[in-house]
């Protein structure tokens, strides 16, 4: 498909997606640069951009036949190595220009306009249409997106909004440590060797739900309620069924594999029902006239009434769907890297001890005194980005890597490939959090939460949740792993380990 098809609304709407959380913490508007004026003697035409495949549907058939979808991050990395720092890609309905280098990401930021656009997910949009639900900021574009986003910024990502839900996250992190101690006491050696994959899923869902809805799900208890287990299963099913639906229009998938489509719809229905139940609980609290206190993000949105109820429900549902695996997986990868890099683990533990030596602190102040721990999370996201790309549609013609790229073209920054590129990072395969604490220019190198006005709206919540979890875990346990080999990863709508590592936790007396 040529450049013209990329300018149509349908081409801009159809796509795969990742980097779920996308937005920006401030209310500022991205600067708009003057449209590039291609010079025939210098700038190469769009058609000259190296291309990874020439027939979109044959490429899609090849992906299905070889089960290549789970290796998209490796394929993209090899394509950059083979074709250079920019190439075109066509797979089914997906058409994009992929770029590798930070300064090209910066160029996209400068050309994103006041209404930045990201790829949508057709199956999610189809569910909203069929069930007559409103879409939230993840799926919206244009003025509708901006209206919702500016309201949500105040409660979800602003410093004043963030500080209110930090105690909720801290409480759940402390409870998870107690949960781990209980399991360790069942072993006479007091050692706990375990695959934490599902436990981290439960932790992140418990923490995010507490911050969003102001109520606990009880997922860290011995026997979670049937409703909580049903909710977890729905989230898992929604994520698992999204990947097969990324490259084929929902109308076609409903005929090709009706079970996947029905499972996807049923999962979203359950997730929306959970949001309905939480809204009803909050309204009951209001009606009882109990003393007013902070009880989560949704309650604040309902009280402020700056958004209609259906918009609040749509956004809270999307937040919930995006806040679980997208935080659980970086935590798993961080624990693994700290286990196989004990010198880094020791340095962070010493930083934690130094922070505590100054006496009790508010959670917000504590978080500001842990630069190495925060750098470790950033380093993990460099090596294992939750989303393997960040996407934008430039609002004007731009020149990238000396190629003319028309306005409206879907452009993707390859995060996995960038994080492991020697052109961008020295010793890219080495886990070295201190690389983020020096004086080197790291602009547009840490893009796990996106950039610009559609940077991850849940960024502050995710960062705080991960930092508090690791803070409490490292002050209570030494972490080790038998296998020091690299983890093979797979793309399942998010980046995850093919086989979760076994980690050993030894209590610190």
Protein architecture, described:
This protein has 509 residues and is of the alpha+beta class. It contains 20 helices and eleven strands. The strands form four sheets. The protein has a four-stranded mixed beta sheet with strand order 1-2-7-4. It has a three-stranded antiparallel beta sheet with strand order 3-11-8. A hairpin with a 3-residue loop joins β9 and β10 (495-497). α8 (159-185) runs antiparallel to α9 (197-213) and α12 (258-287) packs across α14. Mean pLDDT is 86; it is low at 1-39.
Poorly predicted regions: 1-39
Query: What form results from the Cα inertia axes?
Result: globular
* Secondary structure tally: strands: 11
Q: What is the radius of gyration?
A: 23 Å
Structural class: alpha+beta
Hey, roughly how much beta strand do the residues contain? Answer: 5-15%
Number of helices: 20
Distance between the termini: 63 Å
Lateral arrangement of strands in the main beta sheet = 1-2-7-4
| Mean pLDDT across every amino acid position | 86
Largest sheet: 4 strands, mixed
Helix content: 40-55%
Organism: Gekko japonicus
Family: Belongs to the cytochrome P450 family.
Keywords: Heme, Iron, Membrane, Metal-binding, Mitochondrion, Monooxygenase, Oxidoreductase, Steroidogenesis, Transit peptide
Protein name: steroid 11beta-monooxygenase
List the helices and strands and how they pair.
Layout: H1 3-6, H2 9-13, H3 56-66, H4 72-83, E1 86-91, E2 94-99, H5 102-110, H6 122-130, H7 142-156, H8 159-185, E3 192-194, H9 197-213, H10 226-242, H11 250-256, H12 258-287, H13 297-304, H14 309-322, H15 325-340, H16 342-357, H17 363-367, H18 371-383, E4 389-392, E5 398-400, E6 403-405, E7 411-414, H19 415-419, H20 459-476, E8 477-480, E9 489-491, E10 495-497, E11 503-507
Parallel strand pairs: 2-7
Antiparallel strand pairs: 1-2, 3-11, 4-7, 5-6, 8-11, 9-10
């Amino acid at each position: 498909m040529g450049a013209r098809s990329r300018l149509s609304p349908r081409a801009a709407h159809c796509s795969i997606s990742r980097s779920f959380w996308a937005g920006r913490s401030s209310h500022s508007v991205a600067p708009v640069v003057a449209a590039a004026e291609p010079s025939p003697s210098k700038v190469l035409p769009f058609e000259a951009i190296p291309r990874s495949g020439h027939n979109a549907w044959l490429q899609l058939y090849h992906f299905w036949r070889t089960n290549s979808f789970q290796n998209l991050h490796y394929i993209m990395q090899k394509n950059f190595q083979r074709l250079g720092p920019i190439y075109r890609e066509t797979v089914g309905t997906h058409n994009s220009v992929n770029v590798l280098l930070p300064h090209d990401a910066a160029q996209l930021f400068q050309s994103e306009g006041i209404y930045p656009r990201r790829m949508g997910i057709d199956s999610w949009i189809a569910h909203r249409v069929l069930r007559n639900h409103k879409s939230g900021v993840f799926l919206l574009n244009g003025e509708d997106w901006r209206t919702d986003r500016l309201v949500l910024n105040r409660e979800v990502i602003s410093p004043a909004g963030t500080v209110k839900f930090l105690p909720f996250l801290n409480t759940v992190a402390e409870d998870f440590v107690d949960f781990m101690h209980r399991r360790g006491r069942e072993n006479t050696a007091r050692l706990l060797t375990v695959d934490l994959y599902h436990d981290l899923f439960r932790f992140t869902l418990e923490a995010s739900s507490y911050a969003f809805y102001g109520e606990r799900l009880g997922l860290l208890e011995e026997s979670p309620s049937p409703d909580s287990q049903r909710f977890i299963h729905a989230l898992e099913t929604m994520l698992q069924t999204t990947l097969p639906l990324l490259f084929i229009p929902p109308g076609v998938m409903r005929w090709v594999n009706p079970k996947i489509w029905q499972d996807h719809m049923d999962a979203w229905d359950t997730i929306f029902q959970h949001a309905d139940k939480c809204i009803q609980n909050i309204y009951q609290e209001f009606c009882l006239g109990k003393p007013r206190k902070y009880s989560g993000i949704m309650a604040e949105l309902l009280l402020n009434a700056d958004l209609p109820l259906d918009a609040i429900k749509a956004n809270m549902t999307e937040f919930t769907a995006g806040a679980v695996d997208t935080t659980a997986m970086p935590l798993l990868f961080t624990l693994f890297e700290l286990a196989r890099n004990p010198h880094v683990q020791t340095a962070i533990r010493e930083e934690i001890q130094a922070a505590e030596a100054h006496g009790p602190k508010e959670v917000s102040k504590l978080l500001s005194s842990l630069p190495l721990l925060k750098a470790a999370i950033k380093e993990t996201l460099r090596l294992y980005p939750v989303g393997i790309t960040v996407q934008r549609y430039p609002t004007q013609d731009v020149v990238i890597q000396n190629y003319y790229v028309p306005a409206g073209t879907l452009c993707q920054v390859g995060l996995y490939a960038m994080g492991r590129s020697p052109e961008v990072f020295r010793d890219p395969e080495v886990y070295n959090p201190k690389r983020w604490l020096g004086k080197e220019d790291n602009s547009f190198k840490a893009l796990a939460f996106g950039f610009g006005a559609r940077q991850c709206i849940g960024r502050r919540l995710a960062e705080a949740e991960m930092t508090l979890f690791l803070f409490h875990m490292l002050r209570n346990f030494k972490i080790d792993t038998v296998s020091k080999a690299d983890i093979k990863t797979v793309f399942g709508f998010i980046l995850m380990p093919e086989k979760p590592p076994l980690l050993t936790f030894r209590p610190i007396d």
